[in-house]
Specification:
By secondary structure, the chain is mostly helical. The protein has two domains: 69 residues, Multidrug-efflux Transporter Regulator, Chain: A, Domain 2, CATH 1.10.1660; 40 residues. 66% of the residues lie in helices and 6% in strands. It has five helices and three strands, in the order αβααββαα. The chain has a three-stranded antiparallel sheet with strand order 1-3-2. The radius of gyration is 19 Å and the shape is elongated. 12% of the residues are buried.
């Protein structure tokens, strides 16, 4: 995935009505998932919710888990665990890159 791909997927430009059509979820269900902190739409200056393509994907994942009987509290815990793991992976990757750059340029931290 390129930086450009990520940026378009993260832009909050889709209205709740379109998200409802794309996901098959009712507007009420989408708002409920927002209340449960499973999704975080952006608000326009007029207060309307705006979602990204990543949000749509996340809502589809939530809907699939709910169909399998998973409670929203469990889904939230799982999402937080994955975010923490990703954060740890990114920190490790950054340390490794820093080490490679330091080795390449023969930098020593004193």
């Amino acid at each position: 995935m390129t930086i450009e791909d990520k940026s378009y997927k993260e832009k909050k430009v889709i209205s709740i009505g379109i998200v409802s059509e794309l996901t098959g979820l009712s507007v009420r269900q989408i708002r409920y998932y927002e209340e449960r902190k499973l999704i975080s739409p952006q608000r326009s200056t007029r207060g309307t919710r705006k979602y990204s393509f990543s949000d749509v994907e996340k809502l589809m994942e939530i809907a699939n888990k709910r169909e399998d009987g998973v409670q929203t509290a469990e889904i939230l815990k799982d999402m937080r665990r994955r975010e923490q793991a990703l954060k740890g992976d990114n920190q490790l990757r950054n340390k490794m890159l820093e080490g490679q750059l330091n080795a390449h340029f023969k930098y020593r931290n004193r």
